[in-house]
């Protein structure tokens, strides 16, 4: 299982512009959803791609299910030549998303994010409303339970705000 906090902490420490999305975002809002990977939406500027490549380098990222005997070059230009990536790393699986369905690119995702404290450091996380949009747009069977929790969390927050 991925050391999610360590991976997020590495990205924050390196000054990478990213927003946590997916299962870790659900968990950070109080969901009981269990996840085995880290999904982030990242800025696609060259400076950020360089920071992202450098931050993940010690984790030995490699495309998931990519044959071991085939060479793979890990650097910022590899990231520049694609948008969405699924990597295996020494900490576990990390998915890099240049855009999130239903929301848009990094700037749109950032506009739909909130700051969450992760045991001593802060990271941007997709908001509950943003997660609902993304999960509804994806329309995957595996997201249905998470959506029910997100609806309940949103309602609880609305009720709390009314008090």
Class by alpha and beta content: alpha+beta
CATH architecture: 2-Layer Sandwich
**Overall pLDDT, averaged?**
92
CATH class type: Alpha Beta
Number of domains: 1
Q: Describe the biggest sheet?
A: 5 strands, mixed
Overall form? globular
Query: Beta-strand level of the residues, as a percent range?
Result: 15-25%
Q: What is the CATH topology classification name?
A: Beta Polymerase, domain 2
Distance between the termini: 40 Å
Strand order of the largest sheet: 1-2-5-4-3
Give the SSE string: HEHEHEHEEEEHEEHH
Helix count, DSSP H or I runs of 4 or more residues:
7
Oligomeric grouping of the chains? single chain
Helix content: 40-55%
Low-confidence blocks of residues: none
How many extended strands?
9
Specify Rg, calculated over alpha carbons.
Answer: 16 Å
Structure in words:
- By secondary structure, the protein is α+β, with helices and mostly antiparallel strands.
- It contains 7 helices and 9 strands; from the N terminus they run αβαβαβαββββαββαα.
- The strands form 3 sheets. A 5-stranded mixed beta sheet has the order 1-2-5-4-3. Strands 6-7 form a two-stranded antiparallel sheet.
- The longest helix is centred in the last third of the chain and has 19 residues.
- The chain starts with a helix and ends with a helix.
């Amino acid at each position: 299982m991925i050391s999610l906090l360590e991976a997020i902490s590495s990205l924050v420490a390196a000054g990478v512009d990213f927003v946590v999305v997916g299962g870790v975002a659900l968990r950070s809002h109080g969901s009981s959803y269990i996840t085995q990977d880290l999904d982030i939406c990242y800025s696609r500027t060259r400076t950020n791609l360089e920071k992202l490549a450098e931050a993940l380098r010690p984790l030995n990222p490699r495309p998931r299910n990519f044959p071991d005997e085939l060479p793979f070059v890990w650097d910022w230009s590899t990231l520049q030549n694609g948008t969405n990536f699924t990597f295996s790393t020494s900490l576990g699986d990390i998915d890099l998303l240049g855009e999130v369905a239903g929301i848009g690119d990094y700037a749109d995702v950032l506009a739909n994010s909130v700051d969450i404290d992760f045991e001593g450091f802060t990271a941007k996380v997709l908001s509950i409303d943003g997660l609902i949009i993304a999960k509804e747009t994806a329309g995957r069977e595996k997201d249905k339970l998470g959506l029910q929790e997100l609806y309940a969390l949103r309602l609880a927050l609305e009720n709390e705000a009314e008090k």
